Amino acid sequence: MSNVKAALEIIAAKAPGFKAEVALVLGSGLGGVVDAVSDAIKISYTDLPGFPKPTVVGHGGQLVLGRIGGVSVAVMQGRAHYYEHGRSDLMSEPLETLRELGADRLILTNAAGSLISEASPGNLMLITDHISLFGPNPLIGYHGDDRFVGMDVPYDPEIGSGLKNTAAELGIDLFEGTYCWCTGPSFETPAEIRALKVLGADAVGMSTVPENILARRLGFRVAAVSNITNLAAGMSPTALSHEQTLEMAKEGSANLIKILLRYFSSDA
């Protein structure tokens, strides 16, 4: 039995008849979004074949099924990073499982460093494009024509517009920009940040892009929001650390929860 089929059977036993409309993947320090899920059914990743076992503080390691604002959601609290296992495709089976649950929209979130002064720690950035030049494509080794995923419009403009309008209604700044995926786990050097600026990056982080590619192969409409937790290396006298990331994620997380609640309420 495949991991996806086995995971679906476990989910069916714990949440009979559950169907998801939207899937979410939560980044570092964004576990507070789970508190907004009503009628929540929580399943540990350790009980779900093919799901990642997070090794990073701030990633909860559970699948949460329920509703936000009247919309049926499947929320992944925690993800697999390339730097944890040396594989960029480890989110494939979880995403396949979420797709089989019925979700056709995917909202990815992450903690990221800002390369632009306009987006400071505590701000949110809607990802409109990305740069993926520094790690292996997650579809390497896949077979079939569906591996040739078109990336002309990698992030769904309709979902993005909905999130942007919702943020404006709430008086929350939601910047738009290009996200660069770097493999981590070390943070970037000031020289690397200067190079990424030349390439057109507005924010940098260690996730999201492989998930976008995998999800688009599966037919998901994808949107993504970065929670800006720090200015990138060389832009601030403060030394970067994962502890700082988690601390600064709290402010952005509160605003992201407000946006998601209003967005899903208007979508119901």
Automatic annotation (TrEMBL):
Phosphate binds at residues 28, 59, 79-81, 111, 207. Residues 22-264 form the Nucleoside phosphorylase domain. GO terms for molecular function: purine-nucleoside phosphorylase activity. One of its GO terms (cellular component) is cytoplasm. Keywords: Glycosyltransferase, Transferase. SUPFAM superfamilies: Purine and uridine phosphorylases. It comes from the Bacteria. Coiled coil: none annotated. One of its GO terms (biological process) is nucleoside metabolic process. Pfam families: PNP_UDP_1 (PF01048). A purine D-ribonucleoside binds at residues 188, 230. Its EC number is 2.4.2.1. Pathway: Purine metabolism; purine nucleoside salvage. NCBIfam families: PNPH-PUNA-XAPA, PRK08202.1, PUNP. The purine nucleoside phosphorylases catalyze the phosphorolytic breakdown of the N-glycosidic bond in the beta-(deoxy)ribonucleoside molecules, with the formation of the corresponding free purine bases and pentose-1-phosphate. Homotrimer. Belongs to the PNP/MTAP phosphorylase family. This is Purine nucleoside phosphorylase. It comes from Thalassospira xiamenensis M-5 = DSM 17429.
